[in-house]
Design a protein that fits this description.
The protein is α+β, with helices and mostly antiparallel strands and 68 residues long. The chain has a single domain, classed as Alpha-Beta Plaits. It is built from two helices and four strands; from the N terminus they run βαββαβ. The strands form two sheets. The protein has a two-stranded antiparallel ribbon. Strands 2-3 form a two-stranded antiparallel sheet. The radius of gyration is 12 Å and the shape is globular. The structure holds iron/sulfur cluster (2 copies). The site of one iron/sulfur cluster (SF4) has 13 residues, from helix 2.
Length: 68
């Protein structure tokens, strides 16, 4: 999907069955696009810069970045 200003939005998908809840991904995200609400991961597409740092830091390979 393309936004009104021609921006492609992306989303971060976290595979719960692989995730060990180390929260490294949240700590390294430079824009604050990842956060937790209770124990649920929240990804803010508007804040995300698609840098892939969260995906790279995840030793469980639980993160995928998908274009929407
Ligand atoms: S870095 Fe990977 S294993 Fe750690 S909390 Fe994030 S998704 Fe889960
Ligand atoms: S891709 Fe980059 S900006 Fe987006 S959630 Fe991951 S670390 Fe944060």
């Amino acid at each position: 999907m393309t936004g009104a200003e021609g921006i492609n939005f992306v989303t971060v998908r976290i595979n719960d069955s692989k995730c060990n809840r180390c929260y490294e991904c949240i700590d390294v995200c430079p824009t604050g696009a990842l956060s937790l609400e209770q124990t649920i991961f929240i990804h803010n597409s508007y804040e995300c810069s698609y840098c892939e740092v969260c995906m790279d830091v995840c030793e469980q390979e639980a993160i995928k970045i998908l274009e929407m």
